[in-house]
Amino acid sequence: MKLHGTATINERGNLAIGGCDATDLIKEFGSPLYVMDEAHLRENCRKYYQAFSASGAGEVLFASKAFMTMAMCRLVEQEGLGLDVVSGGELYTARRAGFPMEKVYFHGNNKTPAELRQAIEYGVGHIVVDNLYEADLLNAIAGETGALVRVLLRITPGIDCHTHEFVRTGQIDSKFGFTLPTGQALAGVKAVLERGNLIYDGLHCHIGSQIFELESFGYAAEVMMTFIDEIRRETGVETAILNLGGGFGIRYTEADTPGDVAEYARIVLSAVALEAEKRGLPTPKVLVEPGRSIVATAGTTLYTVGSVKEIIGVRKYVAVDGGMTDNPRPALYGSRYESMLANKATQEPEEVVSVTGKCCESGDMLLWDVSLPKVESGDILAVSCTGAYNYTMSMNYNRIGRPAVVFVRDGKAAVVVERESLDDLIRNDRIPPYLQR
Fold first, then answer.
1. Which residue numbers belong to the known binding site?
2. Which of 27, 154, 158, 235 is most buried as measured by Cβ atoms within 10 A of its Cβ?
3. Which residues belong to the active site?
């Protein structure tokens, strides 16, 4: 397993993250456990800030769907980033954390009337309008409340990237946004300009996730700048903001070849500036929305090994005390991760095993055919790069509680999300009168 951030092998021969021994973390906070490397989180935020925001040409918004907690909102604010939210729950979390609402962008393809009212009440900086229904709904609600709402339009640019089909969002056949090649996008801009309570500030697009071909982002910038030119010619209106979304890929396994954030910024900012100069356009402010590439490599999930089952000549199954309830991505996307035995970090691999979760579900597999030292019950298995879309996608299937989340830094650990208790699992249950004893 590749070590990321502050992760090291300590003098006890154990995995340590943020100066904290993984086995000690399990003893103190229980198992399974999400561990977030705070120094690495901040380092990733700063790389983006320096690449995009320091010059004033761009702004970085953390895509909170990747990892959303109040502590993360505070960290993002301290590092000078804005916030991208996609639901009333994420918006509420940000507000409770005290995040400045003017730096919040509210996305989503089917925002409810209640969520739009919530966003207006909170004073979010921008709402990203996804479709004409939402434009009309937002305009009506803004009129009722006496608000003027700044909006971006989400555009589907027709760019098909090399990524999993469930995380491609820029191609024409997508549930998101106004489709550009069909003329729907221009009609959407004109419709927003006609709505008296909406202020058009710019455009948003997102071409996919876990993208390694940095030229794809440059191409998206060119396509969007061509559209910005068309908007000016058709309406006379200038576009102040171009949000190019997220999607920057990270290394999960040795098969992944991520690019450099600084190079990513150079390609995008240069493409926008060049197209603006070529077309005589004012250069819009460029926004990006990294999520995975800020938090994924900062996260490690620690599990305790339970049963071990060997089918001679077929496979050896090692079961841990978590699984698809804390990491559904292998089941959803076929996602692959690297792992190690945190308590045997200096020992050489000597067997190939497959790691299964504890759910009553044959598809509950975390890792297939990985090489590890001799695995025994009670060992601590560490799975790396679980900071993105693990905690936020976790669930209570089989009535299994979600693990705790801790931030580690300088040899100290702090709980940022408490482990769910059995009482938490039934907190919202009700027995109707006719079933009462």
1. 247, 289-292, 329, 333, 361, 389
2. 154
3. 360
